[in-house]
Please model this.
Amino acid sequence: MASLAAAVIALAVLVVGVTAYYATRASLYNEVDDELVDVAGYMVGPIASDISGMGGLNSSALRAANVNIVLVKADHSIVRMQDAPVSIQPGAAEIAVARLGFGKSTRTVTLGPGNEPYRLVAVPLESEDNGSYALVLARPLGPLMETLGQLRAIMIALGVTFIVIGAAAGHRLGSAVMRPLRQLSDAVAHVTETDDLAPIGSTRPDELGDLSRSFDTMMHSLASSRHRQQRLIADAGHELRTPLTSMRTNVELLVADEKTGMLPSGARAEILGDVADQLGEFSSLVGDLVQLSRDDVVTPSLEPLDFANVVNQAVTRAKRRGNGLEFDVVTQPYYVVGEPDTLERAVTNLLDNAVKFSPEHGTVHVRLVAGTLTVSDEGPGIAEEDLPHIFDRFFRSNKARNTPGTGLGLSIVAHTIQAHGGQVSAGNVPGAGALFTVTLPPAPPGALDEGGYS
Model:
């Protein structure tokens, strides 16, 4: 950026400087030409009446006017003053003016022993004997060239100064711009080397600040995801240890019995049944872990589905597991956008929870009215101190310690409903059991027009 700023300023200074220099030189030359033409206008009359005597002009008068003169005729003959300071050699331009008898010519030449620059102006002159001449005036350009030299030196000095200032400003600006990029690069390198997801913490109000804040958001998301993964692995390891230890103990008993026959009659079958139950619990736990470990956000289908159908299918499945229970179900059509399989599993988990805690011959109440799903039972309810943790992974209340389950069912419910943009809450029915409330956003009108409900 410093080089670019210096190059741009150098180009601008060059263009402006050259333009200003040549425009000033042309203006000064035009001013000298106009002055010489005016002087020639005063001289034409006297000289035309006295060609040989040059109208009575002498060197003193010429020095006062700061000019030198010479007459050139169309036949190339020249009339000079005897005491002229310099010898003017007319050229083709001046002879052309003498021949044509109108117009003027201007040019710059070097004259004298020092080859000093002079400005030559030729104007037509008609003598009284009808001779065609050109009056050629020459004025030294020393003062003008000195002025142009000073102008050139000033422009060069100013140009160099502004180039240096521009380069310094570009370097400072480039450093300011690159500083957050270097911080971002260092942060990425730090994460790569140390695996420490540390944010940058930039407060800049510009686009680079937005980039840094986006990086910080990504770091927070990665750190949160890592924390959830570590917590899931730790909790899963703790929960898996119990059935594995129990299964190992039972298998070791069976192996020892195979060698010693120490188990009493019927104990072997009891142990095998226990192993089968533990395998079922283990399989259920692994399935719940796989489902819960899917942190990807649900991508809803553009075709809506009737949530009432999902609830009814989940109720049908729950009835098979709730022998002896009554199901009081009221559903109204409610169209949402989502995945029917994951939604059905979430509703099934709520129903399984109600079935598990319902008393014998109890009733599970299911309502889907005005877009709100409620599932309640007639069991003991949820303790007030357990309500804030009811949707946590592996959380099991004191009432659920001795009941089958993995402690992940309600976590899956919360994860699924939140992934669909909805909300789920837990509470108690006054004088009865637990109450779960689910709300989901309705399908947009455009999706409803497309049809294809399921």
Notes: The CA atoms of residues 229 and 293 lie 8 Å apart. Residues 305-450 form a domain with the Heat Shock Protein 90 fold (CATH 3.30.565.10). DSSP finds ten helices and twelve strands in the chain. The first strand starts at residue 68 and ends at 73.
